[in-house]
Design a protein that fits this description.
The complex is a heterodimer of chains A (218) and B (215). With 218 residues, chain A is an all-alpha fold. Chain A contains eleven helices and no strands. The radius of gyration of chain A is 16 Å and the shape is globular. The two termini of chain A are 16 Å apart. By secondary structure, chain B is mostly helical. Chain B has helices at 3-14, 16-31, 37-52, 71-83, 91-95, 100-111, 123-135, 146-149, 167-179, 189-196, 199-209. In chain B, helix 3 packs across helix 6 and helix 7 (123-135) packs across helix 11 (199-209). The chains are: A mainly alpha (218), B mainly alpha (215). The interface between A and B is medium-sized, with 26 and 22 residues.
Chain lengths: 218, 215
């Protein structure tokens, strides 16, 4: 675990120097994101620091099948660190969550602890699924435009900060895609915005439907 | 170290302020000689009993039940009343009668008392409160109470027991948090939460909480 995190941290640092020239707004790794990525997250400390998050994300971090709050269990630590740091800094708009994770609520080291804890959690409780009617159309879009970064089965990519999509709730997937397409998420990868822009809402519904059927990676 | 022990250590570190206060209280207790449980009981019986009732189960709706509150929470509240971080015209003069070295034994005494639940009167209102206790309100971003306050609202560590608490007191505290009149919560969590709750939700949660916590 620790070894893996160090590895990811080093990879992230490498990626930071390479990526900062191209996409500084999307993933300019500095400040507390850098501190958290370099820190050796401790799952035991993370379990305690995660307590105040349980009211929304549930004790097992499975989120809500309604999609109101995402599943966090099993997500890549790098992704969790980036998203928390972005929300705290106002780079990702999330007014519901923002006041609960202000600087005085958790330290950058606790972000690393929470991320390490969540990454190692089992993926319990089945995710909220789409209606199943868009699976075929969704698969076509996914294989063409999404699989390259997010993996054939929604595994994501820890080193590239691409989230795991498998086992995520249907309505959350759909909501965030609409936010990304319409520019409401603010911290999106510009490459992804370019790819998702042409799609109609019905296309994204089909896509989310397909993605929600991915089995958990482990 | 056992996993549960490690959790306790981390929890203590996380709330270092209150732990420092508890440690200071414990140290001054040592300096003054051991404070016996009997002494804490005597203070409880003279200073606290009039409002908080025999064994901490107040029967007056505006005064909280303090039996079975987590020790850490009681220490923090007494310290906050003493320092003015938690404002109360009633408690401010009363805590001047409590010596710093008596804080820790008093907290241990009340934490060990058996809490007595009350009874919800309006089941329909309590049912809405139950929803909020387990799920919060996803539309307005109200977290579920159970997330921090634990099953049956039993509380732990910094999070107070809320199961079985008087409706009047719960409502008053939520309104105080919402208005910012009470501001000694951990990292604004309750101020943000209470502000997001409607009057109806506050009423409902209070009605549900009074009837739970006996298990």
């Amino acid at each position: 675990m620790k070894k893996y995190l160090i590895m990811v941290g080093v990879a992230a640092l490498g990626a930071a120097t390479a990526a900062s020239a191209q996409t500084p707004a999307w993933n300019d790794i500095k400040g507390e994101q850098l501190i958290a990525l370099k820190a050796k997250g401790d799952p035991a400390r993370g379990e305690v620091a995660f307590e105040p998050c349980q009211g929304c994300h549930r004790k097992d971090a499975s989120g809500r099948t309604s999609g109101a709050y995402p599943r966090l269990s099993g997500q890549h630590a790098t992704v969790l660190i980036k998203q928390i740091a972005d929300i705290r800094a106002g780079r990702r708009l999330n007014p519901k969550m923002e006041p609960f994770i202000e600087d005085h609520a958790i330290t950058p080291y606790e972000i690393a602890d929470i991320a390490a804890y969540l990454q190692g959690l089992p993926i319990s409780v089945e995710n909220g699924k789409g209606p199943g009617t868009g699976v075929a159309a969704g698969r076509q879009i996914y294989d063409k435009d999404c699989a390259n970064c997010h993996g054939a089965r929604g595994e994501g990519n820890a080193e590239q900060f691409y989230p795991m999509l498998a086992a995520q709730h249907y309505r959350y997937l759909l909501r965030e895609m609409l936010f990304i397409r319409d520019g409401d998420r603010k911290n999106s990868n510009p490459e992804m915005v370019k790819v998702i822009k042409p799609y109609a809402t019905a296309d994204l519904e089909a896509l989310a439907d397909y993605m929600s059927q991915f089995p958990p990676p482990r | 170290m056992k996993n549960t022990d490690r959790k306790l250590v981390h929890r203590a570190r996380r709330f270092r302020g209150s732990v420092a206060a508890a440690a200071a209280a414990a140290l001054s207790a040592l300096a003054a000689g051991p404070v016996l449980a009997d002494d804490a009981k005597a203070i409880a019986g003279s200073v606290c009993v009039a409002c908080h009732g025999e064994n901490g189960n107040s029967v007056i709706p505006m005064f909280p039940k303090i039996a079975g509150l987590p020790e850490e929470y009681i220490v923090k509240q007494l310290r906050d009343f003493m320092s003015g971080r938690r404002k109360s015209d009633i408690m401010a003069p009363i805590v001047t009668q409590i010596k710093p070295e008596d804080v820790a034994p008093l907290a241990a005494y009340y934490a060990a008392q058996k809490p007595a639940a009350g009874k919800a009167e309006d089941k329909k209102v309590a049912d809405l409160g139950k929803l909020i206790f387990f799920d919060g309100n996803e539309d307005t971003g109200v977290p579920a109470c159970i997330g921090c306050h634990a099953p049956q609202g039993a509380g732990h560590g910094m999070y107070p027991r809320i199961g079985g608490q008087h409706q009047e007191y719960v409502k008053q505290q939520l309104k105080n948090f919402a208005a910012g009149d009470r501001s000694n919560d951990v990292s604004r969590f309750m101020r943000v939460t209470a502000k997001r709750m409607s009057d109806e939700e506050i009423q409902a949660v209070a009605e549900y909480l009074v009837g739970i916590g006996s298990k």
